[in-house]
Amino acid sequence: MSTAAAQRERASDTATTEAELLARCEALVAEALRAGADEAEAFATRAEKSAATFEKGDLKLAHVDDGAAIGLRVFRNQRLGFAATNQMDPASLSAAARSAVALASAAPADAANVLPAPRPIERLPSLVHPGLASYGIDEAVRFGHTLMTRAQAFDKRISVDGASCDVSRVSQAIHTSRGVRASESDAMVALSISGMAIDGGDVGGFHYASDAVRDPARVEHTVAELVQSFSSISVGNLASQRAESYRGVVLFSPDAFLDLFVAPVLSACSAIAVQRGRSALAKRLGERIGSAGLSIVDAPGDLDLAGAGSFDREGQPARALALVEDGWLRAWLYNGYAAAVEGRASTGHARGGARSVPGLGAHAITVAPGRGGTREDLLRTLGRGLLVQRFSGSVDPASGDFSGVAKSSRWVEGGAVVRPLRETLLSGNAFQLLASVVALSSASERVDGSARAPWALVDGLNVTAG
Amino acid sequence: MTSAPVSDPTDILQEALAAAPGGFVELRWHAKRTRGLSVEKGRVDNATAAEHSGVGVRVLEQGTFGFASTGQLEKGAIVRAIGQARAAARASAGARRERVPDLPAVALARGRFDAPGVDATLARPIEAALDMLLEVERGARASSSLVTSASAGYSEIFEEKGIVTSDGAKVWTRTVRPEFRVIAVAAKAGEMQRGAEAVGVTGGWECLFEKASAAQLSDKAAKQAVDLLGAAYPEGGRTKVLLSPALVGLLTHEAVGHTVEADFVASGSCAAGKIGHRVASDLVTLCDSGASEYHDGAGGTLAVDDEGVATKRTVVIRDGMLESYLHDRESAARFGVAPTGNARAWEYDDEPLIRMRNTYIAPGTSTLDEMIANVDDGYLLDGASNGQADANGEFMFGTREAYRILKGKRGPLLRGVNISGSAFEVLQTVDAVGRDFRWDLGSGHCGKGQPAKVDAGGPWLSCQVVLGGRKS
């Protein structure tokens, strides 16, 4: 079969798969209603995966898979029950329906346990690139091998602990007794590499890099970018020295800025967290919570990010939502449950897969760039202090307190990086420090293929040298 | 949820193996059934029964591994998956630089192994757990006017496995791992603090609440949240600390355990080349075991690993000297040692990786009071949160509570902060090991590409670390 023919076959497979999943969902919803549910929602997925993993600079395993799952949420007298299975025979699906209804009989009633009504979905262009449709284990092995060998060739001191390439095609479908009905497919190439540089007895700090793309034309470029960032940072981690303890300004990479400052904001913007008294931002909607220039948007229509999609886990339209604009807190994230508590519409932020009850979260976060210039400009603005490229630690979602290790960190003198650091700890409070963002770089960067953020200078950090 | 199949699943695996002969083949039927409940502020957020079952197939063909899976415990489907795994191996063999060596001959497990508590847990109605959660969550909120929110969760993972390999394993295992967790959030004057307690075991309901009842854990979480309001931060820097058994568990798991996993060792972890070398104070003996040593119920307990190798206790560090790494069959062949039973897969469609089981530091002779009395200036740290470690041994993990110790006296509660250090350097500073042992890391998961249920623990330990405090 020619490549073009294979691609055409794969494209029709996607449509067929979605139709099969929808039919399966429809049948399961009917089964649940027969079993005694008042309302039922079935969400089904099929995932085809070809993956190559590499360890110790050599191929470890070639993995092919084709798996399915279906999750059933039911409400009976406003009581919740949920069951999931990967067994698609009629007896197993019938057992899942009975199990979900039985669980719903045990739980107390909750007036917000209602399924959302159908709303128009604005379909994104296809997330399955025709050129990616025919990719399989051969491509996974080739791209993974290229990633690993180029990193090793970058510098002989590089030790690749692990590398992988996953080619995945995922189809999903939802059908509910309220009339919600939607399906969509997605295909991606995901690449990752991890390891360190070793020079004699000096084992440099561990580092990893990953990305995911939908366009096959971008795979080679993505491999090159990953090799460059992983290898240069890993080699740069050698000969690390002690930092200096201080309280003041720190420069954060986009990755570290997202982990430390944006993730707690997203947790606190959960409408459920607000409703239940565990959001530190609960009383601050409409107030300034961050420095001027800080804007955080959830953008599920951004096709360059892994979380792109036309609808959420409840089949509600996924649309762009500005959470923070120029430092002002503008919105909460709602799924169907949180929306029902307040008698309003969902913002389309139900998240999760077929194996769990719909949760709540963002799809594809973008932090807007600022006016601070390039990374080098921000280094000059910092002058002297700490540059953090990765954060390994914990942020308390309630208080915003964080404490952890600055990984792949560098000491900056005279506006330039002068040495790598070891055992450097950071602490502070994410919510308080949002108002201390001194500058953001003039461009945002993709982080792991799932978000965008700029480099950020933040004041008020506690830096403790080991 | 049912406990099917009632007949031995290895029989059908054996039939499939006979129908697709040739080379090394490993078949693992892995049925995972979970029940999960969570409540917050009197509302049920989760009431789930889920099943994820199928057969994972790993083959060794042309000197490399291929893996495929099927959701069906059916001979034809398994034979097709064997063919797909072989095709994947052949397609990738050209990228393999060094062929996988012959797997070491080892007495592979045969028979049936049931962990304690399986039948009793499966027979227990889920309504009992839901009633308990609603009660303890309500109790946490009622314990103080400062508690603004509370949540509680219960889950159980029932796993049934049948493992058959072309070189002799034929084993059927059943395990259940229940887990309970409670979180309380307290607020005052714009400040918000969180208290959390969690417990997870390999065993039944009685084992889960053997050390403390759900209500006691809930009270403790609520008290922690309230007490932390207004608590000061410790000062940062390198300091003497007394680590609780939970934190010793994190230290052994994160800081040492990962660096002695043979795949990390082969990549150049800080433990590479150190067998027979001193890596810790002579007070330190550190082990990883498939059994629940000292006390029943350790969360990572398993009789047989996912390659069909019977688990055993592996002494990693004996009296301060590095003695062994943790191996699967492939790494054991490469290192020329016997496998240690550390190959584990999270679900049927995951391949086995080298993972820890129950990792611990063996108890010593000191009482906690004696250890506090011997600290001139330092901190007592308790309550484990998350933790991570790099291959170079640099680790960090979170603590929930800290107390300053000055001249042998314990001071007031301070906020917990993260601690960091370099594994073997920290272990060299150990100058006292407590005598009271506790498993304390059975809830949650270890992450290494796949999750894994593990446990870790030990006695109280006196050592030096870097504390991520705040400058006043």
How much helix is in the residues of chain B? Answer: 10-25%
CATH topology of the largest domain in chain A: PmbA/TldD fold
Helix fraction of chain A, binned, reads 25-40%
Largest sheet of chain B: 7 strands, mixed
Structural class by sheet pairing and helices of chain B: alpha+beta
Write the layout of secondary structure elements.
The complex is a heterodimer of chains A (466) and B (472).
Chain A: H1 3-34, E1 39-55, E2 58-76, E3 79-85, H2 90-106, H3 137-154, E4 158-176, E5 181-199, E6 202-203, E7 207-213, H4 219-236, E8 241-242, E9 246-252, H5 254-268, H6 271-275, E10 296-298, E11 321-325, E12 328-329, H7 336-342, E13 350-351, E14 359-360, E15 365-367, H8 375-382, E16 385-388, E17 390-395, E18 401-407, E19 410-413, E20 416-422, E21 424-429, H9 430-433, E22 437-440, E23 445-447, E24 451-453, E25 456-465
Helix pairs in contact in A: 1-2, 3-4
Chain B: H1 10-19, E1 24-40, E2 43-61, E3 64-70, H2 75-92, E4 110-114, H3 118-123, H4 126-142, E5 147-165, E6 170-188, E7 191-200, H5 205-208, H6 214-228, E8 237-243, H7 245-257, H8 262-266, E9 286-289, E10 313-318, E11 321-322, H9 329-335, E12 343-344, E13 353-354, E14 358-361, H10 368-373, E15 377-389, E16 394-406, E17 409-415, E18 418-422, H11 423-428, E19 432-433, E20 438-439, E21 446-448, E22 450-452, E23 455-458, E24 461-467
Parallel strand pairs in B: 4-6, 8-15, 14-23
Antiparallel strand pairs in B: 1-2, 1-5, 2-3, 5-6, 6-7, 8-24, 9-10, 9-14, 10-11, 12-13, 15-16, 16-17, 16-18, 18-24, 19-24, 20-23, 21-22
Helix pairs in contact in B: 1-2, 4-6
Structure description:
The complex is a heterodimer of chains A (466) and B (472). In chain A, strands 8, 9, 16, 17, 18, 19, 20, 21, 22 and 25 form a ten-stranded mixed beta sheet that branches. Chain A folds into two domains: 3-233, PmbA/TldD superfamily (PmbA/TldD fold, 2-Layer Sandwich), CATH 3.30.2290.10; 240-466, no CATH class. The termini of chain A are far apart. Chain A has 466 residues and is an alpha+beta fold. Helices cover 27% and strands 36% of the residues of chain A. The radius of gyration of chain A is 24 Å and the shape is globular. With 472 residues, chain B is α+β, with helices and mostly antiparallel strands. Chain B has two domains: 10-228, 2-Layer Sandwich (PmbA/TldD fold); 237-467, no CATH class. Chain B has helices at 10-19, 75-92, 118-123, 126-142, 205-208, 214-228, 245-257, 262-266, 329-335, 368-373, 423-428; strands at residues 24-40, 43-61, 64-70, 110-114, 147-165, 170-188, 191-200, 237-243, 286-289, 313-318, 321-322, 343-344, 353-354, 358-361, 377-389, 394-406, 409-415, 418-422, 432-433, 438-439, 446-448, 450-452, 455-458, 461-467. The longest helix of chain B has 18 residues, at 75-92. The mean pLDDT of chain B is 93. At the A-B interface, β1, β2, β3, α2 and α3 of A face β2, β3, α2, α4 and β7 of B.
